[in-house]
Amino acid sequence: GKSVRSVAIASASTLSSAANSTPELYDGISATLAQAMDAALATGNAKVMNNVAEGCARLAVQLRDSTRVRAILSAMAMPTLQRARSALDAMVSSSGMDNSGVAASQMEAASQVLSSCLGVLREIIRFCDEPPKGSGDVHILSDVLTAAWPLLNDISSRQCCRANDAVLSSLLEVQSQLLGVVPALIAPYFKELISFVVRAYEETFCPSALDYISAAVELFDSEQSAMTVASGLDESGKDATFSQLLSHLCQYTFTYITQTKRPNECPQIIKAMFEMAQRYLLFCPGGLCQCPEFSSLFALATACLTECKGETESTRATAIFLTQLIGWKQIRLPPAKLSKMEQYAGTIDNLLAQHGEAIVKACIGGLSGGMPQILWPSLSECLFAITLHIISTSHGADEPNSILYNWFYSAISAGVSSGDSDVTQIVNNSITPELKSNVISIVFGLAKEGVKSKPKAKMLLMDFGKICKGETSTDALLAYSLG
Fold this sequence. Notes:
By secondary structure, this protein is an all-alpha fold. The protein has helices at residues 2-21, 25-43, 46-60, 66-95, 101-126, 142-157, 159-162, 165-181, 183-186, 190-204, 207-219, 226-231, 235-259, 267-283, 285-289, 294-307, 312-326, 335-343, 345-370, 376-393, 398-413, 421-430, 433-448, 454-469, 478-482.
């Protein structure tokens, strides 16, 4: 698989030049690529199939005759679509059989084939992201999409497919790729696609559904985007639409993680939820902040810092969301989005006042032994964002800084409660009154210098973590004090 991919990519430029001067070569290239895809599919190995699909697609898009390229891509995709159709028929047939071992075995085999075929289709689409060369040109994927769309619709309409995690995730990944690569072709179907994605999430809580919404939020960012034009939504209409969508998804997620699974039992959902929330913050802040569930989402993020129990990806996604939301003035939003955030500045400040102590406690607890070291940079950034925001908006008043000081002092004094009693003892012995005072004083001093001191503050907080673990001495703080 990798060798075919490498050869295809390496020969793309040469074949493109040759075909340009000798058009008859196009037929041979088309046949060769279709045969390569057929051979890859025959292996049944998803990695081989994906590697060959990538190589063939990257070669095809280098060819200059867009009409021929459309035909070549269609010929490449056809064996995959045919195999996917057969696998779908087998899944539907198995779902109608008695609940026997044979039916389950057939369903499993068919779902693996269908999922891997959708993976191949995703790879073909992914590398065909060049826009049409002329205003009147048809996109090189138009023929592939015409052939694939009925299949994709049939898959999405089948409950047996939506109930299969692998198939549903693969289908959503294909739809996400289409959304990014050919938005103009997808725009007429966008509303029904969103309805499908929401329905799939309601039924399965598949994280890929939230990933699709993330992609959609980003795609609607530009007023000139094909999706924005096709929808006819102005800025306020877009905010209202995506706010309603976010509210609906939040309600289902809140119910799921309070009644079915705890956050640490579904880390991929938590990761996808807060990655989606972060895309809202960057590309549709009005939709985020005017969402009726905004306050509950903030509270959930605060809880997940501890409830995810140090799981890397979910905790990091949560910390990044809180960092950027609290430190929204530092993320360089365009003027229109900055203005939107300013309208909700008071709401965010109130939420920070309610949950700031818990966030600081979770981050300090993570740094002092409660979470893996790989999370320390994210936890440190979150702590600095809170410190910078409060100090920079206190305008010399003592009270906000006193409250912040109490948050830090209380969090550091709490130490850590680790499952390892030896670790707990080392940490709690390391946290002396002098250490508490020095760390807080230095962090506050760096925050007063502004955002430029963030790298130094991160290093300080990570050194604090090392001191707590007994990996370095308090002498490490001298450099910051002298600086």
